[in-house]
Every structure is written in C-alpha cells, then in structure tokens.
C-alpha cells in the first residue's frame, strides 16, 4: 500500500455485544439499540473486524466524501475464491458510491467462500453462520454512522450471489437484492417481500442458466453447483412479491423481464445471450482465464444497473 493511493485503511476491531443486533430466526430488524452515534467511519477506504461465532470476521468499507445524514448501504459479496478487497477492485462499486452517495461494504467469507445453503466449500460443510455475521456487520456499522434501515441492499457474484439470495430468503434486512451469476441454494418458503434483480449469462457453464450440475472451477476441491434454473428462481420471487406477469424486451444480446409487484416492489431478470460466468462490465483480469472463467461481458455495466435498481426501491 502506498501513500500515493490515498487510502484511509484504518484497521480496528469492533466488539459486537448481544444488544447491538436483534436476531430472530436469523433476521436483523435494521435498528440498533439507542440513539445513532455521530459518524466515525473514515472517509475513503477502511477495514474493520467483528467477533462472530468465535471467529474474527473482516470487512472493508468505502465511504464517499459527500455522505451525510441517514445513508443507504450496499453489501457487496465476493464470489468463491475471492475476497472483499478483490471485489472492491473488480466491480468499481467505490466510484458508483461517489456518484450515488451511499456506503458500500465488502465482507470476507471464511476460506474465501460463503455458506449459501447447500453451497459452498468449508463454510457450507461447517455450517458457518454467515447470516448472523452479515446481520451483525450491519448492526456494527449502524453504531458508527446513521444508516437508513429502509435502504439496505445486498448484491454478490457467483457464491456471493447465492449468499445474497439466502439473505433475501432468511432475513428482513434488505429492501432489494441483486444476485449476479448465482442461483438459489436454500429454502425460501419464509421469505419476506423484497425487490429482486437477477443478472445471468445464458452460456454460464459454472452456474447453468437452465439449472442442474455446473462445471467446477479449475481449483482443487472446487464444488460443482447444482441448483434450480435462473428463470425458476425469478418465478419464486415473483410469487413471494405478489407480482404481475413479467414484460420482456430485448436490446442486442440483453433481454430484460420486468414484473411489477405489490407495494411498489419489482422483480427483474436480465439475461445476457452468450455470456458466461461473469460480472458484466467488471474489470478484465488474466487470473479469470486460469480459473476457467471468461472475461466480463461489455454488453452493459452490471454495477450501474444494480445501483439504478436499488435506488428505486425502499423497504
């Protein structure tokens, strides 16, 4: 790390007491105990850790210069074998936060993975409480600056997308979720209504668009994802949100299906014809090819599209 990068990377630990967050069936209600404190999260990039499940869990934050009052929060979860820092570099959410005036958080999964239900890796095998960790992380942030409990959002790539879906199914924190290149790997029968945007390539062979077993990454021990089809996940959420039938339109290789739902919510599916397992508009990286992954599609900017969707939906 160099001074020329002007990073405010201050690492400190936040001890989360039981009274900081309210967990009921895995759900955090978005409100911490007591009056909000004055903002103590530094401007720019910083890192924190909380103790959860007997383990120190880490996350990066980015706070724009012009960020005042009760602020929106975007939780961005990396894919399998990624990290919060990698997601921060790859998907340019920091620049979007500058323009959109929101706080963005990049949590780290244990062993570079998330327990998204029936996937993935050590967190799934050990039943790591990632739902509790993300809920506690949001509570810890709220103790440091006022956040708007009606504008908390979750997005993620691949295994991180699966985790975003699980958070949507099992908590009441999030106003909207946006999984990219992921599928549903947990029971969603008790989900509370929330807006949903899915983004997925039709040629994704790691998390197949039509469901079923996918190809494992070129990493020892990488799991093969075996989940439902992307359209069926979208249909599940249309039922949860009491939506009208979707309306579809296509521009080039991008097809968007939009369903208007009860109480101003929406459920959308953006399908990218011929695109593989990727975050459209992400930063190209030679390491992707070594993992057996394609470079990001340039058909559109997923980060910009996800934020536009989030900004239109409150809880």
UniProtKB/TrEMBL annotation:
PROSITE patterns assigned to the protein according to its UniProt record, in alphabetical order: PROKAR_LIPOPROTEIN
Gene Ontology MF term list: hydrolase activity
PANTHER family assigned: BLL1128 PROTEIN, UNNAMED PRODUCT-RELATED
Any Pfam family the entry gives: Esterase_PHB
Keywords, in A-Z order: Hydrolase, Signal
Record GO cellular component, one term: extracellular region
Entry protein name: Polyhydroxybutyrate depolymerase
């Amino acid at each position: 790390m160099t001074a020329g990068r002007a990073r405010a990377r201050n690492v400190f630990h936040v001890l989360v007491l039981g009274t900081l967050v309210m967990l009921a069936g895995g759900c955090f209600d978005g409100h911490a105990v007591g009056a909000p404190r004055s903002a103590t999260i530094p401007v720019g990039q910083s890192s924190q850790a909380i103790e959860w499940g007997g383990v120190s869990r880490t996350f990066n934050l980015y706070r724009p210069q012009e960020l005042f009052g009760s602020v929106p929060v975007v939780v961005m979860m990396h894919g399998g074998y990624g990290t919060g820092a990698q997601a921060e570099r790859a998907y340019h959410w920091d620049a979007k936060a500058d323009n959109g005036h929101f706080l963005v958080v990049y949590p780290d999964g244990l062993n570079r993975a998330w327990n998204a239900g029936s996937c993935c890796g050590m967190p799934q095998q050990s039943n790591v409480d990632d739902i509790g960790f993300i809920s506690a992380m949001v509570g810890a942030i709220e103790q440091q600056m006022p956040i708007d409990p009606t504008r908390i959002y979750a997005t993620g790539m691949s295994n991180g997308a699966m985790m975003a879906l699980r958070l949507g199914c099992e908590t009441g924190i999030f106003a909207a979720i946006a999984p990219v290149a992921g599928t549903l790997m947990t029971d969603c029968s008790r989900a509370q209504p929330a807006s949903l945007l899915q983004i997925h390539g039709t040629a994704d062979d790691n998390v197949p668009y039509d469901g079923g077993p996918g190809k494992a990454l070129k990493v020892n021990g990488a799991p093969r994802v075996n989940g439902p089809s992307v359209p069926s996940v979208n249909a599940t959420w249309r039922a949860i949100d009491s939506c009208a039938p979707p309306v579809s339109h296509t521009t080039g290789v991008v097809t968007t299906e939009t369903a208007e739902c009860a109480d101003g919510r929406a459920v959308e599916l953006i399908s990218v014809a011929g695109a593989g397992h990727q975050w459209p508009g992400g930063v190209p990286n030679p390491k992707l090819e070594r993992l057996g992954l394609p470079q990001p599609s340039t058909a559109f900017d997923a980060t910009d599209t996800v934020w536009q969707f989030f900004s239109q939906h409150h809880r």
